[in-house]
Amino acid sequence: MAPAAQIVNGRKTFIPLENNPDVLAHLCENLGVAPGLSFHDVVATSPEMLEWIPRPIHALVLLADWPIYDAARTEIAKTIPEYKGSGPEEPVIWMKQTIGHACGLMALLHCLYNYRDAEYVTPETELDQLLKQAITLGPAERADLLYNSKFLENAHMEAASRGSSRAPSPAEDNHHHFVGFVQKDGQVWELNGGMNGPLLRGSLEDGDLLSEKGLALTVKDYLDAAAKGGNGEMSIVAVAGYNAQLL
Known about the structure:
By secondary structure, the chain is α+β, with helices and mostly antiparallel strands. The chain contains nine helices and eight strands. Helix 1 packs antiparallel against helix 7, helix 3 (66-77) crosses helix 9 and helix 5 (126-136) runs antiparallel to helix 6.
C-alpha cells in the first residue's frame, strides 16, 4: 500500500521522486501508460557517451540541485508571462504545480501529455480522463484537478517509496527541482509547473533532443551553470518511444 501524502505548511506534499529510469518506468506502470516508452540515463553529453541511447529522443527529464536551477532559470523565469490558456488548440498542455515535492510527477506528466500528442496515454484510463478534463480547464482549475487527484497521489507515492536511496519524509526539505523538455510539432518546449507557464526554447524540425542543437535548446543552460558553479548534482533521463533504435 502506498504511503499517504502529508499536509506541510497547509499544502499537500509528496515524497520527492528519484530521477532514475527504473523509478520513472515504475511510475508509468502505476499511471497505466501504454507499453513502448523506455528511460535511459544520460551520463554525459559527448557523442561517444550517447551512442548507447536509442534515438530519436523527443523528451528529457532533468533534475538539478537548486543552485544549478537558480543560476540557469531564475532570471529567465521572470520573463515568462502568466499562462492563461486552455483548450485543445493550445500548442502544448501546461499544468501549474501546487503539490509540494511533486515536480518529478509534473515533469513526467508534461512529457506524457505532450509526447507525440499523448500517444502513450492509454485511452479510457484515469490518466486519459484527467487529460481530457484538464484540457478544458483554465490554469487554476487545472492545478486543482491534479491537486485533488487521489489517483496521481497513489501512483506517485508508491513509486517514490521504491527508489534506490532512502525515501525522505514529505516534511523534509527538498533542494532539487525537476524540469521536462518535449519536442512537439517541430518546437522544443521547457515544461515546468513551477514557472508562470510553458517556455518555448526554439525550433527543431529534424534530429532529436540529444543532437547538438537539441542539447543546446534543452539542458545546455543547466550544464553550463553546473560547470560554472563547480558543485551541485544534476541528472538527465532520456525518454525513448517504441520506434527509437541505436544509431
